[in-house]
UniProtKB/TrEMBL annotation:
Keywords: Cytoplasm, Elongation factor, Protein biosynthesis
PANTHER family attached to this UniProt entry: ELONGATION FACTOR TS (PTHR11741), ELONGATION FACTOR TS, MITOCHONDRIAL (PTHR11741:SF0)
Protein name, entry field: Elongation factor Ts
Lineage, top ranks: Bacteria, Pseudomonadati, Bacteroidota, Flavobacteriia, Flavobacteriales
GO MF: translation elongation factor activity
Keyword Transmembrane: no
Family: Belongs to the EF-Ts family.
Family matches, as InterPro entries: EF-Ts_dimer_sf, Transl_elong_EFTs/EF1B, Transl_elong_EFTs/EF1B_dimer, Transl_elong_Ts_CS, UBA-like_sf
Residue ranges of coiled coil: none
Major site of localization recorded for this protein: cytoplasm
Gene expressing this chain: tsf
Start and end residues of each Translation elongation factor EFTs/EF1B dimerisation domain: 73-212, 228-320
Amino acid sequence: MSTITAADVNKLRQSTGAGMMDCKKALVEAEGDFDKAIQILREKGQKVAANRSDRESAEGAAVSFINADNTKGAIITLNCETDFVGKNEAFVALAKDLVERAINFSTKEELLASDFNGITVAEKLIEQTGVIGEKIEIGGFEILEGAYVGSYVHVNKIAALTAISAPVANAETLTKDISMQVASMGADTLSYKDFDPAFVESELAARIAVIEKDNEEAKRLGKTLKNVPKYISFSQLTPEVIKQAEEDAKAELKAEGKPEQIWDKILPGKVQRFISDNTTLDQEKALLDQNFIKDDSKKVGDYVKGFNVEITGFKRVTLG
């Protein structure tokens, strides 16, 4: 029978990340054969992975990596079952290792099939499932290229990338701020101009149906009814619609007895409020049309204009 030394156990531990006792048991079973011990630990991982395949893996770590010249970025989530494991230093280190590898691939499938010190990334995740005892998988995976790419990660839970059209002064600040916006508020497209008219109409109809149903209950309970919108995007606010909004505002001011000589000071605010109240879809889904989280007195598009560049793309991944 082979003698298993502490050095042997430590070597196997460093190679696989498995615990001391698991490494010792594997070496004993393998009669000191290092490669066979590794295989035993991997088979254990396969068994654990099979047993936990139906478990939810909504915890973990969201991480990012930008290449040296800031022209390409990667973000992934490495998912596990518990927040305790997700905060573990070794787990986060593995996530960071994987995202650095991810930048060399276009898809998650390519990353999973790639080499990880003699095994595939997919096999490494199975191995670590055996080591940690929880289901581990790569959840979100996004790659973004551009003239300049920056990122932001929110407490290892959400990661975002932003690409701009030129590497201008303060590009790092701009891309971090916009990535923070994307991480915090989410967005599906760059501008309301990208919306398909049929999508806008469908969204409006769906929102009206929800509000009308809520109003039925509110009316029954004697509560204040919600306003039923006629518009939800600036794409619907034609010059004629804006003109009518101005006329309606003037009628209100007249009914309130406000002197005509002060209307010019009040009307812009009323029209702006009308626009704000009737562009809720833009504010939710169109990045440039959202209120800037660091200064809600301006839109994201207004902030970007100050840098004389354009946003050419953005990506976001989140746990859960």
